[in-house]
Amino acid sequence: MKVEKYRVLGELIETNKRQFVIPVYQRNYDWGKQHCKKLYDDIISAYELDRFHFIGSIVYVDQGEENKIYRYLIIDGQQRITTLFLLLKALLDLTEDENLKKEFEDILFNIDKYNDLKLTDQTKIKLKPIKSDNDQFMLLMKNDLQAIDRSSNIFINYDYMKKLISKSNALGITTKDILSGIKKLTSAVIILDPKEDEPQVVFESINSTGLDLSLADLIRNFILMTDKNQEKLFEDYWIKIENNVGQNKMPAFITDFLQFSCREIVSTKNAYIVFKNYFKTENFSNEQMLEKLLHYSAFYKAFLGNDTQTYSHIVNKKLAGFNALDQGTIYQFLFHIFDDYDAGIISIEDLEKIVTFFFNYLLRRIVCGVGSNSLRGLYKTLYNRIFADKKNLENYYDSIIQFFLQLNTKDAVPSDSAFKDALINTDIYNKKNVCKYLLKSIEDIAEDGSESKEILDVSTLSIEHIMPQKLSDYWQTALGNNYAKIHEKYLHNLGNLTLTGYNSELGQKTFDEKKQLIIDKNSHIVALNKDVLSQASWGEKEIKNRADRLSAILLKLFYIDKPQKYIQFQNDTERRYSVGENFDATGTKPNTCIFFGNTLTVSSYADLLSKVMEVFYDLDNDVINELANKNYKLASASRTYITHDAEKLRKAVEIYETGIFFESNLSANNIISFLKSLLDVFELDYSELVICVDSKS
Are residue 589 and residue 655 in the same domain, yes or no? Predict the structure, then answer.
């Protein structure tokens, strides 16, 4: 490795017979106008102050000579270098001075003085961005502005630079002055020797200092940077993965993939570390890892609703429902199910029944107000818990349903009665996505119970209260003496809600006026409004009757298909307790605990505490560190429980080798209280932590 301080133009870019190559593992050119403006202002300042200006480091690998052109693989600095090339091209296109034009051309292009370089259209230009950017960059350099994509950052920033130059020219700053400013830019240039230096290590070191790289950027670089066939792997795998998932969904896909693949709890904070450990532990080659990611990205494409051809209408509809209700946490579990369908273990009918069950299950949870914070942990080990006995694969759907029917935690399936009661008596309106989905589902059902041929488009519709949110004198009189109680109890009730495209027009109008507007402008919404239009007045009785009718429809729509075969899951040799059940742990001996999807084998309550503390640390080490900084105490205790100072504890145990210690000299019940307090700190439900104890203890 060599470190030199170079003038960016005179000693780096301007030299003939060289090309700076942006490798395929780098992200696209994505500088915005604010970044371009900052660099441009620095150039103008360097000119006006007549002094050098440092623009940061540039790191490249010297790849040697090819057809007498020296190639330099850019590891860091591509955004600045690309922007400088765009600025130089803008200056070339705006200047009318022929001598200056020649100078700009000599900077931007390799010159074949002796006709021995065998230059192509590509090698003639001193910069080669990654493929998607390079296509536009080549068109720009060839002045083919008719063919260029004007929405690309290459064109946008080139055009923006032209505007900045024109403004400077209007202020008396010439093109030559701007070039003079560019010549005063300096950089610390780090030149890596591919035989001695590891570009991946250098890259990570540079990017640990705060550059904004996404999880997908880091993983792409990790896989491709170390492979000789990086361009082939990029084309054959990475591009296809991104096309399946979409760039903005790549971090979520990778996180869900790791949740599915690894034992660790994965978050955006630790995903990159988990990925590298997984890659190395499983001894993947780069291509094997990409093959695996491509395989699961095809499923993810369907999960996101971007593949409506591979699976049936029912499967696609339920996947769209998960998206509509923002229930992407289930994807890590669906990977298992779709894998089994892909392998022929289950049929398309089985797949339909399974995704229908999980959608109905999740919808019921939301309506019944069951918190979602236990779901990630549930899904992480769910497949292994259900199919630990491989015989259960023979009764696939029944095994899943029986497992849920035998749960005694909050993750159990909400019953029909609980679901209907919540539909009738609770606030549905403020669960906006669910509310609109429920109302749309009612409207989409034909009178014979089948799916209507005319599916309602709710994108332009809003939820309307029939009894309005603010009561006018008319509505107070219409509701009677108990209008305030009726309004408070039934306002956001299912029976008082409908869909309309004319929310602002309905407002506080009288009931008759509302009915007339519904007739005039909402004739396409029939099922929801038929028992509104048939009423002469609107009050408590009408709302209750309508809620009862609509809830009966929803109960049929989102029923739980009962299993045909009984499968036993409860282990008779042990008892399971959620820490929220307030059981007396005295005299009991734990053998395992299930926490946030991790099944941990333990030998004692002290061992349980130690292992669960590590999981808490993995979940969010910043939270644990902050508790240690404060010498954390339980609200009901005076002693310290978590600290950096082991002397403050009677029996200190260190979390990994972090310098964070916790108290372990505690009774079984005090350990339970300690863990409950941490669940509160992390805003997790007590049902996240289940302790299994020997029944003979």
Answer: yes
